[in-house]
Amino acid sequence: MFKEARRELLFDWGMIGDIGAGRPNLGPHTDVSIYRLMQFTLRDVMIHRLGVQATDDIFRTAGELAGREFCRNFIDTAWDFNTFFTRTKDLLEQLKVGMLRVESADLERMELTLTVAEDLDCSGLPVCDETVCVYDEGFLAGLLGEYSGKPFAVKEVDCWCSGDRVCRFHATPLDDA
To answer: For the 4-vinyl reductase 4VR domain, which residue ranges apply (predicted)?
Structure first.
């Protein structure tokens, strides 16, 4: 499941396992600091071995895969955009991932500016004049792409780490060309 060589992504939701059976006493929740410990130590080792760009590409690609799988398992792609967004926003808050909002939207062109407050990945980190949420870029691109059936580019333009109190993302569909 995890140690075989592969040339394509093989993740499916079943790989998450039966958390209820596996953690009958502790349950499905953990502290944000432990999530960040795993993410930031993994990121540190990857940057050391592969460099920043390769690490960012891997995190973005993993986020995109996660966004697609999240959509496939929790979202009905037949919903209109308002229902899709409301249900997604509510679910991300329920799961304590962050507080998603639409700051602006051109639904005809599907160009969006989204914000995430209390972001799982970065809220509370020291200001370092960087945007750091590349996994979130991928997650939102995968989520929007799976919902709409069109690939999306998502770029973080403001971040807690750049001094803002929300993460702000511009999302645009990629040209079919």
So the answer is: 111-173
